[in-house]
Model the fold of this input.
Amino acid sequence: MSEAGDAKGVFASAAKKVKMGKRVEKALKEKAAASSSQEATEEDANKAPEPYTCIGHFDADFTELCRRAGLPPTEIPPVVLRAKRPGTPPPPDPKAKDPTPPEEPVDVAEEEPKPKTYVTKEKYSYFKPNIQVEMEHEEKPATVTEIYIRGWKIDDMMVDIFRNCFPTIEKLNTINLWNVGLTDKTLRDLAAIFPQCPNLKNVSIEGNPIAEEPWACLIGDDSLIVNLSLRHNEITDRGASGIGAALSTVTTCNKNLISLNLSHNKFSDVGAEAVVKGLRMNRVLLCLSLASNKITDKGAVKFGELLSRFPLTHEEVVERRKLLSDKGSPDRGTGKSPPPSRRAESKDRPGSVRSGSHLDKGDKKRDKSSKKKDNKHEKKNEKEDAGKGNKTVVMMDSKKDKDEGAKGGTKKDDKWKKGGSRSSIVGLNTSRHGSRAETVNKTTKGKKTTSSKDKKGGAAPESESPDMVEAINPLLDSVESIDGQLWIPGNRSIINLNLSRNEIGEAGLKSLLLALQYQITLANLAPHPALKGLMRLSLGRNPIRADSEAYQKLQDLLLTRDPFYKPQAKSPDGEVQSLVG
Done:
């Protein structure tokens, strides 16, 4: 019995040990699983989330990017539709039987219905940050066309969010930022984002004074902005100088900006002169507003010189000579020898070139007769110049330029003509230095070009259309030599100039009047299909007398320059009848 009891005890202890071992093993497994799951969760927490790919829906993209940036849902600015003024109700139908039905008696106890001209919102909701948008179709989130941000600060984090979502909005054409606390860095970052938006044309940044004044970064060579408004930014002469340099220099020019609003700023005649300097070689800008600044007669005189004519500086003369040289010899710098015709005309003819004995006799006779005529013409000019005194005026010979172009090469070698010989220049667009021309590329590979002569050998008349506009650099325009200086016609591409609410007096007014008279005279003598000249000039709220003779003349001239102006016609009875409306 004792042996049997001992055996049972041994068996029980062994079974107990087995159960304990299983429990320990189970506990160890659970512990290992818990530790592994904890490590996995830690790895998931440390692992960076996958980058978000914007889909072009601004509301969804902006909200998701803000959430990933760590903003709590209550602090993410909502994207809302921009409020619009309610439409005018249609007039009542006069044919209706009861146009004014009798009013029903109003029960004073009942609550009056809310008016439909406005929408009530939660208290202080107007002051909460939001992004207002306009859409082509409200039911389609991918049709956002305009974005308005007003009254809250755009920091670096928000700029990074815009960097991801703005370029994916296909139809975005307008960005309006008012009082958003931009800094030098955030403005430059936004300026780098704008060229990535394919259809962005209108940018308005107002009420954002910046001490560094980096406004020129918005008008870079790669800028696609067409209309730019920089009102109420406290721009001084420093900022205006940068803007003027960005508009154009001797060798560069902005090719897209056609409207610039710099009103309600703080620059003086120095800043105005810098803007004038930037418009010397710019033939793209059409509308310019400098209202509500500190411009006096000195600045107005500079604008008068810009609009009439001005002498070229030394740098501009040097650049003009380079352009003429490149135009005359397009193979310069390519290692090719110039055409034989130009070698024959050169006075410093190398010895390897044959003499004129190989010329045709008829050509020699023609050359002799032309030389005699040239000598007579030169003597006649010398006599006229001696009678006039020291002041001489010498016009460029357009025929000579045509000959040089024909001898020097084709139009495709002219870097100032956009598209070259494979394009027809039509309408109003831009070339490198501002001549507005719209190029329509027409490739002619594999096609035979027709000769300019007809079958009989005669020269075929060239079909010239008034809409054909050649993209010519202002430095290649006709010049006048006066007292040793080369003068060129001024800027006639500006059609709207606003100088109201400044400090312009009688002297500046007279200068602007002379400039307008010069443009009208030049347009009558040498009309240009694209350069129409000034059509609107605003001078209100300046210290100018209302009975000023110069002011009345200026207003009369501007009236005829108005594209919607229709002169009064006389009836057969002699009475004046207006053609307007």
